Amino acid sequence: MKLQLHEQLKTLRLEKNLSIEELSKKTRVGIEKLTAYEKGEQIPSAQTILKLSTILEVPVSNLMDGLN
Prior knowledge:
Blueprint (H helix, E strand, L loop, with lengths): L4 H11 L4 H8 L3 H9 L6 H11 L3 H6 L3
């Protein structure tokens, strides 16, 4: 089953043993924004998805697939 973007973000962050605060520092995206992304309340911009894919070490396409 394909995970939605918000599910992927949280799963990948936990797999990398990153707290939301650590991910925020690495991506320079606010904690509130990241929390909203993980809850599915907001959708990150393409630029933010690129940052997240780099830090979480997954292809951008994996995250983009979760938007459908």
